Amino acid sequence: MKFVYLAAAGLAGVATLGAMPASAQHHHPGPEAPTPEPAPVTTPEPPMDHSQMDHGPAAQAHGPARGAYGPYSMTREASGTAWQPDASGHDGIMGRMGGWTLMGHGVLNLVYDHQGGRRGDDKLFASGMLMGMAQRPLGDGMIQLKAMISPDPLMGRSGYPLLLASGETADGTDRLIDRQHPHDFFMELSASVSQDVGPDGSLFLYAGLPGEPAFGPPAFMHREAIMASPEAPISHHWLDSTHISFGVVTAGLVLGRVKLEGSRFNAREPDQHRWNIETGPLDSTAIRLSFNPTRTLSLQGSWGRFVDPEQLEPGLDQTRWSASVLYAKAIAPGWKLAGTLAWGRKIVEHHKDDAFVAEASLKHEEWTLFGRAEMTENRELLDLAHHGPAYRVGKASLGAVRDVPIADHVALGIGGLVSVNFLPDGLAPLYGGQNPIGAMGFLRLKLK
């Protein structure tokens, strides 16, 4: 297993284009410190799990990894600086090297995609991600380096068929309509530093090229409720398309279960060149307030002013709003339930277009059942030079996957999904009916 830890450390080193500091320091758990005699209690405490354990500065030397941005469990952190429920699961492989805590995580999907109707298509493609993280204590806080890459560019500039999806461009001239764009090879190269303020507070600074600003819920491939699905949501460009932004600086304050953060970032969508690193002015702004009232819930509300986000619409700015609730809970021994409810709004030239999403998954041992229902008000489904009328469209997907261990920390998943699309009368003739069907069958390799 040591080679996995070394690979994660090397990948995190790429993020800073430098070598990881070496140290002869190693982790040697010692005996627990003596504690005062406990007072009598009448009700026994429930067993403590990983996400309930103390991860403050005094405990991090002898306990599981704490969060990068504050004195809480790492299980609270998702993509970028976004939060998820403390009860969320983490599939990464963890280890230590010197004074560093390392984590590696990876998912590789091989997908056969069929989208029906007149505007549908078929395609075999690969998607996924490989992530490496390294963190170590710094004073009363933490420093973290993270890198994430994706095989998505191998599917070609036009991405894969996905009815009712829109956003970005394949060639710098034409919109991608009824297709999901490939993500860039570099999904994240970031560094962060935090310092604790009191027993349950912290200040943090995060920077990425690319990185994820403080807007929206965690990116869809990191949300526990739907991460088993290889299908992107049609609401992606309302909620979380900023998860690959080429230039981000975020500052935040954590006070217990509350986090307030703000970002300056480059809002321009990645262009059709998917292998490179782009640059641009940090002229857009996002603000997000997050609150985890219990271990099983995570709430956020966010606002963003996006300057010149669309390559094909230069000079046209957007305002976006988002709110979401994420849920995760072990409902019985061996059973895990997760859910998402999210809303996003895009305001362009005084047009207010909304998107709504509901996601859920039920996991039992090797099986995961997952589903998503969503609605968007989309002005890009007609191939026009500028935004057309808003069409309210919907999609519902249901699928399952079974993961079979094939080696230490590696599982092979076999799964599939079926989706039904819902179209208004004005669009139905273009698609060959009001309810075209889509389906995906997939194999996946996952580190766990």
Automatic annotation (TrEMBL):
Residues 31-46 have a biased composition (Pro residues). Residues 22-89 are annotated as: Disordered. This is Uncharacterized protein. It comes from Sphingosinicella rhizophila. The keyword Signal applies. Keywords: Signal. It comes from the Bacteria. Residues 1-24 form the signal peptide.
